[in-house]
Structure formats: C-alpha cells, structure tokens
UniProtKB/TrEMBL annotation:
GO cellular component terms, A-Z: endoplasmic reticulum
Domain of life: Eukaryota
Organism of origin: Olea europaea subsp. europaea
Domain SAC: 130-470
Listed GO MF terms: phosphatidylinositol-4-phosphate phosphatase activity
Protein name according to UniProt: Phosphoinositide phosphatase SAC8
InterPro entries in UniProt: SAC_dom
PROSITE patterns: SAC
BP term (GO), one: phosphatidylinositol dephosphorylation
C-alpha cells in the first residue's frame, strides 16, 4: 500500500549521481538531469553551483555514486561523505528502500601542509575515526519518502507535506547524519540531501532461510490471505554511542540505546502499526570497563536526577501518550540497586506506570512462556493503548494511545525477547479485529508463518545489538524457538567473549568516531588539542603489559618443569610465579587504565 504517494508533487531525491574528480575540485551531477549538481573545492571545501567549466576538461576519475550523506570539517579542511554502493531491500509503503553497503569520505584538505606537528597528529586520529564511520552498520534510506516517521504520525501530518524536501519531512531524532547535512542545507541542495536512518528494516520472507543484513520481501499466508509484516527500528541520535560508554541518561533526559520499533501489518487492504520503545534506565549512571567481565554499576548522585527522569518521561508522554515503563532488570546485586533507584524516582511520577519484572528470575534462560506473567500485569493498559489501523478506503479506524517502554541493562537481549512477545500479542489482536482470525486463533496456530514472524524479531535483535555492542544479540534462540538451545548457548558464549574484547579494547575509539560524526564533539582549530592532557596512552601500554604477563607465565611454566631437579630451579619458579602474579594484580587494579576509552567527550 502506498500512503499519500499518488500525488505528482511528491518530492523525490536524485537516485544516481556522477562523481567527477578534478585536481582542484569534486563535481557531482545528477545522471538523470546532468545540469543539476554542485562542486566542492579540494582546497577549502567551499560548495558552489555548477558552472560552464564544470562540464569541460578531463577529470582524473569518473564514478557513479548513490547519494551524498553530508560534510564534516576537520583541522585541515572539509570531508565529503558519499554513498558508493547500496542494496535494494524492498519497499516501505510503496516506496523503494535501500541499505547503505559502503561509504567513502572524499578529502578536501589541501591545507594539511600548514598544520603544526601536534595538529598533524590530531588530524591523523580524526581521519582514523572517519574510517570507522565509513563502516557504520544498519543505515537505510529512500529517495521517494522519509522513513523516520511512524505510520500514525504520517497520517496526522498536513496535506501536501510530502511535497517538502525529504530532510524537512524527517524526525530529527532519528536522522543519523543530521549533523553532516548543514553545509548542503545552507547551499539549498535539497534534491541531494539524504536523511539516513540507523536501525533496521525487515519484511516477511517468502521462505525461511534468512541471513543477517539480507532484507527479504514476500508474503506469509494466514488462512490463505496474503499478508506482509514489516519491522522498522529507528535509533535515536541524541545519546548515540557504544554499550559501555553510553549508559543511562544525560541531563536533558535523553537515554542511551533509545529505539522506536514499529511493526507494520498489510493485509487485505488494511494496514496497521504497533509501536514500542526501548531505552537505558533514565538515571545518571555508568559502568566503566576495567578488564573485569562485568564491571560494577555506579549510580551518580546528582541534584538534577529527578528532573532528568521527569524530562525523559514528559517527552514520551507528549509524543506517544500514556506510558507503561517495564523494568526487566534483576532485583539483586548491582542491577538490584539500580532498579531500586529507578523505582524510587518513578514513584514521583504519578502519570507513568512503573512495572518491575525480574526477567531472569521469572523466565530464566529456558521458559519464554513465563512472560505471560508480565503480560497479565500490564494487559489492561496494553489493550487500552491499542494500535493504529487504517481500512482499505484509507480511513483511520483505530489509533494507538500509548506506549510500552521496556528496558534491561543493555536494552538488547532481555528487551528484545519481551518486545517480540508483546508484538505477537498485538498482532493476534489486530488479526482478530480485521476478521482474519477467530477470537481463539493466534499467529502461533500457523506453524510456518509463526516461524517467519519469530525469525524477523530475532534478526532485528541481532542488528540492533550489532550497532550498540558490536556483536549479535544474546538469547536469540529464545525468540526463535521459545527456549534456550545448546547451539544458542554456544553462540551466546562466543558473542559474550566478543563483547568483552570490543568493550575493553576497541569501543573507546568507536565512541570517539560516533561523537565526532554526530556533532557531540566539534573540531576546533583554535583550541587546545583534545589529546594533550592524556598522558597515559592505553593503546601503547597494553601490548607491553600483555607481553610481560605471557612471558612471566611461560618462564614460570618452564621453571616448574625443572623444579624437581634442584632447589635453585624451585626457587626460580617461585620467584617467577610471584612476579607474574604481582604484575597481574597491578594490571587488574589499574584495569581502567589499560582499556580503550573515549578521548573526545565525557560520559554525559
């Protein structure tokens, strides 16, 4: 179904561009309309309209690109981000949708030779961050419509809104590259400005052999009625970051890993939408990596804590209506203390219902069906909030009047299992309302179609997890099969080890890349270097420490094998073992110093 797409005044972006690389500038033209385009100087990064000279002369290279994602200025000049390859992943409400498969920064930094020695070092680090940005996962866009707005909001907008430039249609919370678009906006290059959504978009496949990052389209047949289910997750950019370096909320009430997930159903001319959100516990808290497998949670006492929680939920109430906050964290240990602090603050908000539910205690790792206990607690509010439904004539017959906000600690694994359970409940209610199901039928009645539904939610969890933690989601087999399997345990173990490595030794640099591209850090050539105060460089010390530990263990092992020969060998092995143990203790006690950490921005 196309929504308001029949008008000839719909705004459409140029879908294929030609990039000409000249010694002094880059020229970008629309292949469809070669007189439409712009140039950007390789010396100062200035953007200009096309002129007669831009079509003459021989360029050193000509290539096809599929969009301009924006510009960013570093110390030596401007860098232009272009989409170099894409994948057609299906349609959203009748409009083709694409996934970015590769991007590239074009450097306009001929001024680099004028930088000081320190500035050259800083610039080299910034350019390393741009390389990380080029491989950002989960970016989607459409040339024909905005994909950041949910269906209910689209229907509420004024007549003719789709004739506006796509970037003006978008919800700025979910535009991944909004900080990069300012230069293009200033130069009124509306038909070149592509808002990118980070998250994921999945449709029901025609057969059950999905693989991650492959967008599959097709139909499921519910009682011989063709239907399409689409999952769209939209990641908020306000507190964007990595798993350990972006926890909790900032002072404005924006939370880490905040994602709006929409489940769309198209069946027999009807189209429905069901929304859920997830986000980190909206307190000021941190969990700094220190080489331990599970670093301690630390709640930061701040005079603004109550205001932070209030700001967060006031924003949700304004955007979505009534809110039920489902807290899935453990009720003991560090998680229990954090949950207790959250519950205490929620008592001050009479217009938001707080529901604590210890996921691990109730469901463990094996019993997905025990989530019915949670549903029993919230069913009245859940069914009252409802869903959005449009009939075949385009008339709104039902609206969603509220939202379920779910969280665990990461808002990944437990949250995804819970959201998929609630999504199934809503889907059953919608299909019964449309008349395709009887009051006693559910999606689980239809085995093959139910498997497809569960696979969609499992893959959605994988991609969301990849963007935040760097690995696939844990507990994915609970979503797929309703229980933990041996294969799932092995997969979860591998993902847990990968998370440990990434969180401790890579995510600090990745957080810097995110802060740079999202505008939370702005490069300032007139200010001091952000790296001069960092006297201890974990990147250079960690290999030395690791080598010493490995060497000590090796020597200890060798001397132990010879310890029975004489007292001197035994004494040597004791000394080596003691030194190695002491070194390991020193490293452990200074674990934070050996971990990769952000260097551009603070935690809040």
């Amino acid at each position: 179904m196309e929504v308001q797409s029949g008008s000839t005044s719909n705004f459409k972006l140029w879908s294929e561009l030609e990039l000409h690389e000249f010694p002094n500038k880059f020229v970008i033209k629309s292949i469809e309309s070669p007189d439409q385009g712009f140039s950007i100087s390789r010396f100062d990064g200035n953007i200009n309209d096309l002129d007669d000279d831009d079509g003459s002369g021989s360029s050193s290279k000509v290539s096809t690109i599929y969009g301009v994602a924006g510009t960013i200025r570093l110390l030596a000049g401007t860098h232009l981000l272009v989409i170099t390859s894409r994948k057609d992943v299906g349609t959203y409400l009748g409009f083709p949708v694409f996934r970015v498969t590769s991007m590239k920064f074009l450097s306009c930094n001929e001024a680099s030779r004028f930088l000081t020695s320190q500035e050259k070092k800083d610039e080299a680090y910034f350019k390393t961050l741009l390389k990380i940005v080029e491989s950002t996962p989960g970016l989607y866009y459409s040339y024909g419509t905005d994909i950041t707005l949910n269906l209910q909001r689209r229907f509420k907008l004024a007549e003719g809104w789709m004739s506006r430039p796509v970037w003006k249609q978008a919800d700025p919370r979910f535009v991944w590259n909004r900080n990069l678009l300012e230069g293009l906006i200033e130069n009124k290059l509306d038909k070149f400005i592509i808002p990118l959504l980070q998250g994921n978009i999945l449709l029901t496949p025609t057969f059950l052999s999905p693989s991650l990052f492959i967008f599959q389209t097709g139909e499921i047949n519910l009682k011989n009625s063709p239907a399409v289910i689409t999952l769209i997750s939209r990641r908020c950019t306000r507190r964007l970051g990595t798993r350990m370096w972006r926890r909790g909320a900032n002072l404005e009430g924006d939370t880490a890993n905040f994602i709006e997930t929409e489940q769309l159903l198209e069946l027999g001319g009807y189209i429905s939408s069901f929304l859920q959100v997830r986000g980190s516990i909206p307190l000021l808290w941190e969990q700094i990596v220190d080489l331990s497998y599970k670093p301690r949670l630390n709640i930061i006492n701040h005079e603004q804590t109550s205001k932070v929680v209030e700001r967060h939920f006031n924003d949700l109430l304004q955007r979505y209506g009534e809110c039920v906050a489902v807290d899935l964290t453990d009720k003991h240990g560090d998680e229990g203390l954090l949950s207790m602090a959250y519950a205490s603050e929620m008592q001050k908000l009479p217009n938001v219902r707080y529901v604590p539910f210890d996921f691990h205690h109730a469901s463990g790792n094996t019993n997905f069906d025990n989530l019915q206990l949670l549903y029993d607690q919230i069913s009245e509010d859940f069914e009252k909030q409802g869903y959005f439904l449009v009939d075949p004539e385009g008339k709104i017959v039902a609206e969603q009047g509220g939202i379920i906000r779910s969280n665990c600690i990461d808002c990944l694994d437990r949250t995804n299992v819970t959201q998929s359970f609630l999504a199934k409940k809503s889907l059953d209610i919608q299909l019964q309302r449309i008349g395709d199901f009887s009051p006693i039928e559910t999606i689980s009645t239809f085995g093959e179609d139910f498997e497809i539904f569960k696979t969609l939610w499992a893959e959605q969890g994988d991609e969301i997890s990849l963007e935040y933690s760097g690995t696939l989601a844990l507990k994915g087999d609970i979503v797929r099969y309703g229980k933990q399997t041996m294969g799932g345990l092995i997969k979860d173990g591998m993902s847990a080890l990968s998370r440990y490595y990434l969180n401790n030794f890579q995510d600090g640099v990745r957080q810097d890349a995110i802060d740079l591209i999202s505008g939370h850090y702005t490069v300032n050539g007139n200010g001091p270097s952000p790296f001069q105060h960092n006297g201890f460089d974990s990147i250079s010390y960690l290999p030395v420490a690791s080598a010493l530990v490995i060497g000590g263990l090796t020597v200890t092992s060798i001397t132990l094998n010879q310890a029975g020969r004489n007292a001197q060998s035994f004494l040597s092995s004791v000394v080596c073992a003691g030194l190695t143990a002491g070194l390991m203790a020193v490293i452990k006690s200074n674990g934070r110093q050996f971990c990769s950490r952000p260097r551009l921005c603070g935690l809040f």
